[in-house]
Each structure stands twice: as structure tokens, then as C-alpha cells.
Amino acid sequence: MRNLFALPLLFLLGACTQSATEIAEVNEAETSPVEEQVVSQMSIHLFDLPEGVSEEEYLTDIEKMNSFFIASGYGKNYTVLKVADDNVAENYRYALVSSYPSAEVYEASHNQGEEYNAFMDELSAKYSSIWDTEIYRKVYTIN
Length: 143
Prior knowledge:
The chain is of the alpha+beta class. The protein has 2 domains: 2-31, no CATH class; 41-140, Alpha-Beta Plaits, CATH 3.30.70.100. It has 6 helices and 4 strands. The chain has helices at residues 2-16, 20-31, 55-71, 103-109, 114-126, 128-133, and strands at 41-47, 78-82, 94-100, 135-140. Strands 2-3-1-4 form a 4-stranded antiparallel β-sheet. Mean pLDDT is 81; it is low at 1-24.
């Protein structure tokens, strides 16, 4: 009776195992050095979402804003972060961050033309309560 269980178990174990080569390839990919991005400045916005604005709606607007940077060759620029749901912080539960290799890239990436400016005017009106109360810092690398 034991043999009836042992044989299928051996087949299952054989099907689920990886060869040493496969394991080495996975381990090498996971530990390969990542190309380091040079960051000379960041923009950090700490804020709370206004009443009536969902995370999904805000994220959709930020992704649209990112689409301008992507289309211009700068890549995704802004990332939204949030404190953990079980965190006791009552204020500034969200962060919007972006990083730049230089002040020149910062300026150029924010000079996207009329369509970008019109979209930013829409965001400014829609999220004025965020911009009026956020903690905003433009920080620079010192090391």
C-alpha cells in the first residue's frame, strides 16, 4: 500500500524540482548588479487625499502625468507611496516622489509644452487642497 503512495509522490517531486543549472540561472539573475541611477535631486510631496478623491482616481491622474514624461523619453517620473493601513499617523499619509540626475533634467522634464501645461492647470485646480496643505521639499544629494 505504501508503494502506491510513494510512486506518485516521487513523480510529483521530480516534476517540481529544478535542475542545478536552472537554479544557478535564477540565482544569478536575482543577484546581478543593478545599474545604479544617478540622483542629484528629488521632489517629495507629503499630503492627504481630499474628501471625495479615491486612491484610484489620484493614481490615474498621476499615471497620465507620467505619460508626458515617458513620451518625452524621461521615463516614469512620479511614484505614489502610502503609509501602511495600520500606521497611526493621522496626517500626511501619502507621498509623491520623483528623482532627477540633474537640475537641468528637472527643468527640461517639466517644460513639456502646451498640452502638459494645460493638464497641469487641470491638476492644480482639482488638487488645490493638496497643494495648499502638502509638505513639499526639493532635496539635493549631499554625499
